[in-house]
Sequence to fold (62 residues):
Amino acid sequence: MEQLTYSASDISQLLGVSISAAYNLFHREDFPTLKIGTRLFVLKDKFHQWLSEHSEPGQFPS
Fold:
């Protein structure tokens, strides 16, 4: 079965950032977070779309 979502741990590994930095992304208003119960996820396609939109020079959020 294909993975449909990423967790903060997945995002941390994909971006090469700390887990706390990944959680900070999940709490941004412009990040497409999906909350299921108490867990935070991002749909795989929404993450790649968000990353593409924010990967222009000078556009990546700090």
